[in-house]
Specification:
The chain contains 13 helices and 9 strands. With about 350 residues, the protein is of the alpha+beta class. The longest helix has about 40 residues, at about 65-100. The radius of gyration is 46 Å and the shape is rod-shaped. It binds 3,4-dihydroxyphenylalanine. The site of 3,4-dihydroxyphenylalanine has 11 residues, from strand 8 and strand 9.
């Protein structure tokens, strides 16, 4: 037997193996690795420790005692090492599970979708604010209106041709969706005595639908009734209002017109806010934009509301709000105002 052959026959040194076990144990990161380590060292059939015990028979009798003690020390070290490692792995798993279940307070919060004031309402607010400073309060009336308040009391008796121009939505006999906010004038004068200074913002309805018309749109109505009110009061009020609403340099122009409920009547234009009156596509090159209808309250309307026209006089006006919102905020199509697409509303 050569020395080499002899050393190959010598059983492995159990004392040196403890260090190898520690190295292997340090590299284990999960349960699977731990199981492999356990089977490799402590497996019943081919485990290293079992193999060392089986080698006992090849150890010279005088060394067996030391050898056996060394194997036992190794076995105890491996068992303790496996147990400690198992504990560490369990601890690590528990920490990972806890972390993934916890609320992460550093995440950004989810914001609730908060609405914004609708562009039409922004304009209505501005208008109401300006008129409040001029001494007008806000009145309201129903959108389902009687034929009497929407037409008859405004000097449009049943066969009056002006009724045809309003594209009315008729409901039950005698009821309509109000075609304008002017019936609120009537309701106010029925309920109160002069002096009266009110505006009425609200929805109105007409059977009309294209890029510039929507079947539902908004108007602001105005009414002032007292002793001694003249056309100059109307003109001064509207000029003050329109210059506040648009720009101090805005030009205001009154053209003669006709409404059954006012006499005389006027249509009121402002210099186009887009081209300052130079002429552009929005004002069709004229430099002027028609903004409202107005006039002195027709004495017959006052009479129908039981207000004596020999003592009292008044002026009234009415205007569309949505067009002002469209031009102010650059909305090209009136229906975009009522789609309520948040992307549009959030831009304003
Ligand atoms: N009611 C009219 C319309 O809807 C607007 C209007 C014109 C109202 C003249 C008025 C007024 O109060 O005096 O077309």
């Amino acid at each position: 037997m050569t020395p080499e052959e002899a050393s190959a026959q010598r059983p492995a040194d159990p004392g040196a193996l403890a260090g190898r076990f520690e190295e292997e144990a340090a590299a284990v990161g999960d349960r699977g690795g731990w199981d492999e380590l356990r089977i490799r060292w402590m497996g019943r059939k081919q485990g290293i420790v079992r193999g060392l015990l089986a080698n006992m028979k090849d150890v010279p009798p005088q060394e067996r005692r030391d050898y056996g003690q060394a194997v036992n020390r190794l076995k105890t070290a491996v068992e303790e090492g496996l147990e400690r490692l198992e504990g560490e792995l369990e601890e690590r798993e528990r920490a990972v599970a806890q972390r993934s279940a916890a609320v992460d307070v550093t995440l950004p919060g989810r914001r609730p979708a908060v609405g914004a004031v609708h562009p039409t309402n922004l304009v209505i607010r501005d208008m109401a604010q300006i008129f409040a400073e001029l001494g007008f309060s806000v009145a309201e009336g129903p959108e389902v209106e009687s034929d009497y308040h929407n037409f008859t009391a405004l000097n449009m008796p049943p066969d009056h041709p002006a009724r045809d121009t309003q594209d009315t939505f008729f409901l039950d006999p005698g009821r309509v969706l109000r075609t304008h906010t002017s019936p609120v004038q009537i309701r106010t004068m029925e309920a109160r005595r002069p002096p009266i200074k009110i505006i009425c913002p609200g929805r109105v309805y007409r059977n009309d639908n294209d890029l510039r018309h929507s079947p539902m749109f908004h108007q602001v109505e105005g009414l002032a009734v007292a002793e001694g009110i003249t056309f100059a009061d109307l003109k001064g009020t509207l000029e003050a209002f329109l210059k506040r609403l648009f720009h101090p340099d805005t030009g205001v122009r009154l053209r003669p017109s006709y409404f059954p409920f006012t006499e005389p009547s006027a249509e009121v234009d402002v210099t186009c806010p887009f081209c300052d009156g130079a002429g552009c596509a929005t004002c069709s090159g004229s430099g002027w934009l028609e903004i409202l209808g107005a006039g002195m309250v027709n004495p017959r309307v006052l009479e129908m509301c039981d207000i004596d026209p020999r003592r009292y006089s008044g002026f009234a006006f009415g205007m569309g709000v949505d067009r002002v919102a469209m031009s102010r905020y650059g909305v090209p199509n009136i229906r975009m105002l009522f789609d309520n697409d948040e992307r549009l509303l959030r831009q304003i």
